[in-house]
Specification:
Elements: E1 3-7, E2 10-14, E3 34-39, E4 49-54, E5 57-62, E6 67-72, H1 75-81, H2 85-93, E7 97-106, E8 109-114, H3 121-128, E9 134-136, E10 139-145, E11 148-152, E12 157-160, H4 162-168, H5 174-177, E13 178-179, E14 184-188, E15 196-207, E16 214-217, H6 221-230, H7 240-246, H8 250-258, E17 261-266, H9 272-284
Parallel strand pairs: 2-3, 3-6, 8-15, 15-17
Antiparallel strand pairs: 1-2, 4-5, 5-6, 7-8, 7-9, 7-10, 10-11, 11-15, 12-14, 13-14, 16-17
Length: 285
C-alpha cells in the first residue's frame, strides 16, 4: 500500500509507515514535488550519489528521478537517519538546504537556533516551549516560496538527552521513551504544528559565563556565509563540490541578504529558569 507524507517542502511516496510524519491527504499533487522512497529493492541504474555513514544502512540517491533507494536490515536505522544527512544531500542537488538547528514559532514566524553538537539546541527549545510552540528539532529545510524564505520541518519528533528530559519534563518517565539507536528519549510533537513558516531570524549559539541571555547581530556578510555553510546538515559527510555549489545558489544569496543572523551567548543552564521568560520577550519584541 502506497502512503504519502509531508517531508520538508516535498511529499514522500513510500510503502513504509512513518508515524513521525504527517500524512498527506490531498488526492493530487505535481510529480515534481514527490520523492519516492524504496527500501531493499533492486537499483534501477548507477546512483548519482551514495550516502554511507554507518555499516548497516546505505542510501542511493537519484535526484533527477526524484527517488531514493535504501538498503538496510533494520527500519529503525532508516527512521533515525533518513531526515538528516541523506535528505540534506538530496536537497543540495535540488539547490535547497537543510540546516542543523532547532526552531520555535513566535507570532507565526520561525526563529532558528543553530550550534555545534551538544551545544544545547534542544534544551533551549524545550525551555522556550513554555511560551511558544516548538516547530522542529535538529533539522529545518529552507526554501523560497513566493519570493519569501520559509522554513519546513520533517519529522515531528523531539529527541531529548536524559539531562534535558529531567530538566524540562520532570515526570520520571525517561526510560519509557528511550530509543536505543539515538540513545535519547523520542517524543512526538502534536500534528497541528505548522508544516512551514516564514523564516525570521537565525541565532548561532555559543556558551558564555554571563548570567543571562544576550545576542549580537552579525553585520559581516563573510561571517554570515561561513556560519551558514557550517550549519548545513551533514556537511562533513559531503563532497566539497556540493557545499561550494550551494554557495552560488539564489537561495544562499537570499538568506545572506534578507535574514538577520545573530551570535547568541548562552548563560549556564542553571540560569535558564530565571532568564528564559525575559529572553522570550526579547525575541517577541
Amino acid at each position: 500500500m502506497m502512503r504519502y507524507y509531508y517531508l520538508y517542502q516535498f511529499i514522500l511516496e513510500t510503502d513504509i509507515v512513518f508515524d513521525m510524519l504527517i500524512k498527506f491527504e490531498q488526492p493530487t499533487v505535481s510529480r515534481n514535488n514527490i520523492i519516492s522512497l524504496l527500501v531493499n529493492e533492486e537499483l534501477p541504474e548507477e546512483p548519482e550519489y551514495v550516502v554511507t555513514f554507518r555499516e548497516d544502512i546505505k542510501y542511493y540517491l537519484y535526484p533527477k528521478r526524484n527517488c531514493i533507494y535504501v538498503q538496510t536490515s533494520n527500519l529503525d536505522y532508516l527512521y533515525s537517519s533518513f531526515f538528516n544527512i541523506p535528505m540534506s544531500v538530496f536537497c543540495l542537488f535540488k539547490d535547497k538546504v537543510i540546516l542543523h538547528c532547532n526552531a520555535v514559532e513566535i507570532d507565526s514566524f520561525l526563529f532558528c537556533f543553530s550550534g555545534n553538537k551538544a551545544m544545547g539546541k534542544t534544551t533551549l527549545a524545550m525551555y522556550l516551549e513554555r511560551y511558544c510552540p516548538i516547530f522542529s528539532d535538529d533539522c529545518v529545510a529552507v526554501d523560497i516560496c513566493g519570493n519569501k524564505l520559509f522554513g519546513y520541518r520533517a519529522a515531528r519528533t523531539l529527541k531529548l538527552c536524559k539531562n534535558t528530559y529531567e530538566l524540562t519534563i520532570k515526570d520520571g518517565c525517561y526510560e519509557k521513551y528511550y530509543d536505543s539507536i539515538s540513545q535519547k528519549a523520542k517524543i512526538l510533537l502534536p500534528e497541528e504544528t505548522y508544516q512551514k513558516l516564514p523564516l525570521k531570524k537565525i541565532f548561532f549559539m555559543v556558551r558564555s559565563n554571563n548570567s543571562n541571555f544576550s545576542f549580537e547581530k552579525i553585520e559581516s556578510k563573510v561571517t554570515k556565509k561561513i556560519l551558514l555553510i557550517q550549519s548545513v546538515v551533514g556537511k562533513d559527510y559531503m563532497e566539497e563540490r556540493m557545499i561550494q555549489s550551494f554557495g552560488h545558489t539564489i537561495l544562499f544569496s537570499k538568506m545572506i541578504d534578507e535574514i538577520p543572523f545573530y551570535i547568541l551567548k548562552l548563560p549556564p543552564i542553571s540560569e535558564y529558569d530565571t532568564n528564559i521568560k525575559s529572553f522570550f520577550k526579547t525575541l517577541q519584541a
